[in-house]
Amino acid sequence: MTSRKYGRIRQWTCVSLLGLCHGFGDFNAGLLLAIIGRHSGSDIVVMYLLYNILAFVGQPFAGLICDRLGHAHRWFHFGCLLSLFSLYLVWDHPELAITCSGIASAFYHSSGGSLAWKVGDKKVLVTGLFTAPGVFGLALGLTIAGQLSDNAFVFIGVTFFAIILILARLMSGIPILKESYNSQNSVLDTKLIGSIFGWLIILAIAARSFAWSMSQQSIFPIDYAVKLALAAAFGKLTASLLADRFGSLQVSIFSLTAAAILLAIGDHSPLWFFPAVIALQGSTGPMMAIVLQAWPRFPAFGSGLAQGLAVAIGGAPILILSTKTSITLYAAIGALALSGAIIFLISLSNNKRLSLQSN
After folding, report:
1. Is 58 helix (H, G, I), strand (E, B) or coil?
2. Which of 354, 199, 209, 177 shows the shortest CA–CA distance to 290?
3. Minimal CA–CA distance to 113: which of 99, 100, 132, 97?
4. Phi, psi dihedrals of residue 189, rounded to the nearest 5°
5. Which entry of 230, 267, 284, 308 is 20 to 30 Å from 301 by CA?
6. Alpha-carbon torsion (68, 70, 75, 76), positive or negative
């Protein structure tokens, strides 16, 4: 009994440290992007575009490498160390730094999401524990980059490296990391190509990502980034916990519906917008869990789709659409409605399929 309890503590400590490393990695990315934006003589737009292609579009490809070659924990450590390395390249080699940071992000997001899912017994809560620190880390890095001394950079590096070493040591003793995935319990397609339900979830995540980007533009400047990130992190954790009790589909539908209603009622008021952010981001973990169930044999690939490609697809229209407040807010509400409708249709279809199986 004591041994089993110790094992559970070890597992959940690993999940927490995975999330913490995710937060540090995105914090490093935020610092790097802010430094390049302020001091680099390079083309800023090209640099930002390069980072987003590598960090987001590249996630499913990095995930496939992790799934095909195995040892996802080693790929996670590789991504974290490369992220740390990129931060110290930024002053002299900004182009190389942004390339390394983007590749690092692709690997630690895709492998980290799959590791948290596996180590945490495939509970939805682990998706919240893993994703929540990331949004806060990125916002914090973007905000305080200009306030850090050289000693602060050294402290960040040493702390991050120490956490990576502790996580590596803890993970080396978890037998489940050596096991293969069992896809028998999934009601969704297990092939790499996935199923219509899996890709519909990706579309729903993309619509939610679009809503998140548009709603931010409609109301708040960068000065509110950390406060919004805290609200987003709280939403991810809370909804993921609730999803283990009430179901991922149900919590996703509720979160998206609540977010759309709050945005519509609030009409650019911060009093309503922060609860809307909590609700909107609350769907992150449950929807990611559904994707991971859709590709049970390829968890890193699924993690990369949910955290990377879908987010990139949702953010791409921002580059070409008008940023007028009235347009962005209504576009966000419409995107949330679309996302919720997709999840609702999947819920109906899934219930019907389970009913047929029981008969």
Report:
1. coil
2. 199
3. 132
4. -60, 140
5. 230
6. positive
How many Cα neighbours within 13 Å face the side chain of 253?
12
| Residue 14 token pair | 């690993």
pLDDT at 44 over 80: no
Tell me the three state secondary structure of residue 70.
coil
CA angle 279, 285, 291 (to 5 degrees): 125
Closest to 56 measured CA to CA, from 200, 209, 252, 193: 209
Q: What secondary structure, in 3-state letters, does 125-170 show? A: HHHHHHHHHHHHHHHHHHHHHHHCCHHHHHHHHHHHHHHHHHHHHH
Residue with tokens 């709603």: 215
Q: Which two tokens stand for residue 232?
A: 């987003």
Reported confidence tier of residue 178, pLDDT bands at 50, 70, 90: low
For the four alpha carbons of 264, 218, 277 and 342, in that order, the dihedral sign comes to positive
Binned at pLDDT 50, 70 and 90, residue 228 comes out as confident
In contact, 95 and 71? CB cutoff 8 Å:
no
Helices then strands, counting H and E runs in the chain, come out as: 15, 0
CA dihedral 142, 126, 21, 194 (to 10 degrees): -80
Do the beta carbons of residue 112 and residue 22 sit within 8 Å? Answer: yes
CB 18 within 8 A of CB 116: yes
Give the angle 168-310-271 at the CA atoms, nearest 5°: 95
Contact by Cβ (8 Å): 141, 235: no
Q: Region 188-200: what's the mean pLDDT?
A: 63
User: Which candidate, 91, 62, 84, places its Cα nearest to that of 75?
Assistant: 62
Q: Is 1 helix (H, G, I), strand (E, B) or coil?
A: coil
CA 226, CA 143: separation in Å to the nearest integer? 7
Distance of alpha carbon 143 from alpha carbon 141, whole angstroms: 5
CB 354 within 8 A of CB 247: no
